[in-house]
Design brief:
about 325 residues, binds iron/sulfur cluster, globular
Length: about 325
């Protein structure tokens, strides 16, 4: 079942040079009880898509059209207060470099208590009891962490504390935006394992937003690939990694370095992502695509089902 549906979403940023259409008619289904992933290079629009869903766009960001349906309700039509409630109680998010969002002058215990009291009335004892269980779930010592100030914790401990805090209100969907960026490789792998445990223990619906494909391969059930404000491909993790259809997805997979593989077989995608101030006509990937033909330059390919729910936007798979 889909827990969240995005339909034809368009988001612009007004900048000095003009209008940047950062999300350009995106439709996407997020499956309940699964780890969904949204991948793409930096600047492809994935964080803006999340900000639009959560109503956390910067002041120069505007949702021009589209719907974001959470359990049959278009949350873009709700008032500010209702969206704020949904943002923590139903959809929680761990933003990039979230460790820095802890208040440096408050003990962790106070921050857990404040988070809950901002949304509902509950006794401090009950909140701290639940906080302790969640901290145990992320393999931290509750007595030590709850009594600490943020500067007394390492980067990895702070990130795990934030993940525990995001689960405090028992959200139905947890969004993780680059959850392991700014962490060393060992801590990254620890956090991935821990997220898998949380997903398995709670059947927690997750949306993992990242440019880091190895993390996706380890965690995700279903993957959407985004490029220059568009969704190019959606499939199961096996389809995306072993049978990619879109030339851009295949390029991303070929560009992953492997510890064991032959580095000479790594093939970076030629060229650079386009400027969103003046994106290419037709298929936005055509200047970098070895299969581009005339129609690709003129007309945008639709996102079609190539079989069994494996979606792709490429003329190699549609008329
Ligand atoms: Fe390449 Fe054309 Fe497919 Fe775009 S639509 S990815 S340019 S073949």
């Amino acid at each position: 079942m889909d827990i969240l549906k995005v339909r034809d979403l368009v988001v612009d940023y007004l900048v000095r040079e003009g209008t940047l259409r950062v999300v350009s008619g995106v439709s996407l289904d997020i499956k309940g009880g699964k780890v969904n992933a949204l991948v793409g290079e930096s600047g492809c629009g994935k964080t803006t898509l999340i900000d639009a869903i959560l109503n956390t766009l910067p002041p120069n960001g505007y949702i021009r059209s589209g719907k974001v349906i959470f359990k049959d309700v278009d949350i873009l039509r709700l008032g500010e207060e209702e969206r704020r409630r949904i943002r923590w109680e139903k959809i929680a998010v761990v933003f990039q470099a979230a460790q820095n969002s802890l208040n440096p002058v408050m003990k962790i215990s106070e921050q857990f208590v404040e988070t809950v009291l901002a949304h509902r009335r509950e006794t401090k004892e009950k909140i701290l009891e639940r906080a302790a269980k969640l901290l145990e779930m992320v393999h931290l010592d509750p007595a030590q962490v709850l009594n600490s100030y943020p500067h007394e914790l390492s980067g990895g401990m702070k990130q795990r504390t934030i993940i525990a805090m995001s689960l405090l209100l028992d959200p139905e969907l947890l969004i993780l935006d680059e959850p392991t960026s700014a962490l060393d490789a060992l801590t990254q792998s620890y956090i991935i394992g821990m997220l898998r445990e949380i997903h398995e223990a709670k059947k927690q619906s997750m949306l993992l937003v990242t440019h880091d494909l190895p993390i996706v391969a380890e965690l995700a059930d279903r993957v959407a690939v985004m490029y220059a404000g568009k969704i190019f491909e959606v499939g199961t993790v096996d389809e995306i990694f072993y049978e990619p259809l879109h030339p851009y997805t295949a390029g991303l997979i070929n560009a992953i370095p492997s510890i064991y593989g032959d580095l000479s077989k790594m093939r970076p995608i030629p060229g650079n992502p386009p400027s969103l101030l003046n994106p290419p006509s037709g298929c936005r990937f055509h200047p970098r695509c070895q299969y581009a033909k005339d129609v690709c330059k003129r007309k945008e390919p639709p996102l079609v089902d190539a079989g069994g729910g494996h979606l792709v936007a490429c003329y190699r798979y549609s008329g």
